[in-house]
Design brief:
- With 481 residues, this protein is of the alpha+beta class.
- The chain is built from 13 helices and 25 strands.
- Strands 5, 6, 7, 8, 9, 10, 11, 14 and 19 form a nine-stranded antiparallel sheet that branches. Strands 21-22-23-25-24 form a five-stranded mixed sheet, sandwiched between helices.
- Helix 4 packs parallel to helix 9 and helix 7 (216-223) crosses helix 8 (232-240).
- The longest helix has 20 residues, at 319-338.
- The two termini are 47 Å apart.
- The structure holds flavin mononucleotide (FMN).
- Flavin mononucleotide is lined by residues 168, 170-173, 185-187, 190-192, 223-225, 311, 313, 320, 323, 381.
């Protein structure tokens, strides 16, 4: 059963020694970053900063900052297990009575995915609207010295398509400009930006709500690259194994997770832009300032004793790397539904999600590696992948030593490199233009005669198994370990 709220998740982390309380007063201006960065780089625990001078709420950091905590957040022993469950739903059959009976628990779980609307909610224990709205109540972090201001870094932004009414939930940072306005940093390719595009074309304001600190499954779902029009709240319900409770906003026609710590309600005005950034970003560089829409608050509601969750991003590895690894593992089986030849995929954390992908495939025909590159560049947010390297199926792409060994040996750079042009991530500072640039694919598979390679391809060096067995027997007596 899912965590009821962030408090329940924190209690579990503490019980398992995965959370430390910091009682010394620490400023949200740079100091929380420096402490959290050091702890994160050492693989340390989640942190609850209990005294943030000038603010009445503690700050939670690094809650998702290890594979163990990521699994705890999604209440699973392994992320691959979640992937397996998703696949089992997709492959469910009901062609015999036994299979129909086996399907019943699955159907019950599906039924529990759907959100439930409630009329009273903890996130509305305190309601501030109109002139009483004041973002200054929140201990918003100024993360890095060169940042353009304080940023809300773990916000779950909720909008509805102005024509279809379909919901989108995405994590897009918010730069705080003053007590009642923030930036709305949804990149051009994201769900929220599409809703805003439609609203702008109609000359309308787009209502938006921001849940700060809903339960961990909702936070993860907001970061997940779900296809457009698939509701992240349903996905969170699936992950939690029970419905997410939603409540109507006080001043906007939107529903928000009832157990959130804080909710910001408001709208994004058509045609309005304001300079956003710079911001010390996922890439480890400051992302360049740019013009983004502006979020105007109409209400700020919160629990009576809220906790303010935040994250810092910067040079990897950081907390976001674990959210990204969870996405890689959970979404791999879904990618395989379109590309069954893919054996495994590794987006190394140093590659900052989409800069670098190592992919192993079961190569079946000439040019297969290239087909996989192009298919990945056409698949949702995989379109951002700047460099894709394709290996044969026996290569363990999780082993970076093996990857570099095969890459160095198996590639003729001129023949095996493919360049393509297309959309690039908004954070890509190397591309010649914002949002548009190039990608590189490298075919590091064994080359076939049908691909024009007529020289013999050498075998990999391996010891005779009989000799290995003999040395295994001898080994203890050799005194070498
Ligand atoms: C900590 C964190 C901060 C993020 N900040 C942004 C952001 O400011 N803008 C953005 O477009 N994506 C940001 N992302 C990535 C999106 O949340 C992600 O692409 C998500 O899939 C978007 O949802 P959507 O597909 O519904 O638009 C962030 C991700 C994380 C983990």
């Amino acid at each position: 059963m899912g965590y009821r709220n962030l408090q329940a998740f924190i209690a579990r982390l503490e019980q398992l020694g995965e959370l430390k309380r910091v009682v010394a007063p620490v400023s949200p201006r740079l100091e929380i970053t420096e402490i959290t960065d050091r702890v994160c780089k050492q693989g340390g625990p989640a942190l609850l900063f209990e005294q943030v001078p000038g603010y009445g709420m503690p700050v939670l950091m690094n809650a998702f900052g290890s594979m163990r905590r990521m699994c705890l957040a999604l209440e699973t022993d392994s992320l691959d297990a979640i992937a397996g469950e998703i696949v089992s739903f997709m492959e469910a059959e009901a062609n015999t009575l036994l299979k129909k009976l086996q399907l019943l628990p699955k159907l019950a779980r599906l039924g529990r995915m759907f959100p439930k609307t409630v009329s009273r909610a903890p996130c509305q224990e305190v309601v501030l609207s109109g002139d009483r709205v004041d973002l200054g109540l929140l201990p918003v972090l100024t993360c890095w010295p060169g940042d353009g201001g304080p940023f809300i870094t773990l916000p779950v932004v909720i909008t509805q398509h102005p024509e279809t009414g379909r919901r989108n939930v995405g994590m897009y940072r918010l730069q705080v400009y003053d007590g009642q306005t923030t930036g709305m940093h949804w990149h051009a390719h994201k769900g929220g930006a599409q809703h805003y595009r439609v609203a702008e074309a109609r000359g309308e304001r787009l209502p938006a709500a921001v849940a700060i600190g809903p339960d961990p499954a909702v936070i993860f779902a907001a970061t997940a690259p779900l296809p457009e029009d698939i509701d992240e709240i349903l996905f969170a319900g699936f992950l939690r194994g029970e419905p997410v409770e939603l409540v109507s906003c006080v001043t906007q026609p939107l529903l928000v997770p009832a157990e959130s710590q804080v909710v910001l309600e408001g709208y994004v005005e058509p045609g309005e832009r304001r300079r956003e950034g710079p911001f010390g970003d996922h890439t480890g560089y400051y992302s360049l300032p740019d013009d983004y829409p502006v979020f105007h608050l109409t209400a700020l509601t919160h629990r009576r004793a809220p906790i303010y969750p935040a994250t810092i991003v910067g040079r990897p590895p950081m907390e976001d790397c674990f959210l990204a690894k969870a996405t890689e593992r959970i979404f791999l089986p879904l990618i395989k539904k379109t590309l069954p030849e893919i054996v495994d995929l590794n987006l190394p954390v140093e590659g900052v999600f989409h800069n670098l992908a190592f992919v192993s495939i079961d190569k079946r025909y000439p040019g297969h590696a290239r087909k996989v590159m192009y298919a990945l560049w056409g698949l949702g947010q995989m379109m951002f992948t700047k460099i894709i390297v394709i290996f044969d199926k026996e290569v363990d792409v999780q082993d970076q030593g093996q990857v570099l060994w095969r890459l160095g040996n198996n590639v003729d750079p001129k023949r095996d490199t493919v360049f393509a042009e297309g959309p690039v991530d908004a954070l890509d500072h190397a591309a010649p233009l914002p949002h548009y640039g190039s990608k590189m694919g490298i075919d590091a598979t064994r080359k076939w005669p049908e691909e024009g390679f007529t020289r013999p391809w050498p075998e990999v060096i391996d010891m005779d198994p009989e000799i290995k067995r003999k040395v295994d027997e001898l080994w203890p007596s050799l005194g070498l370990t």
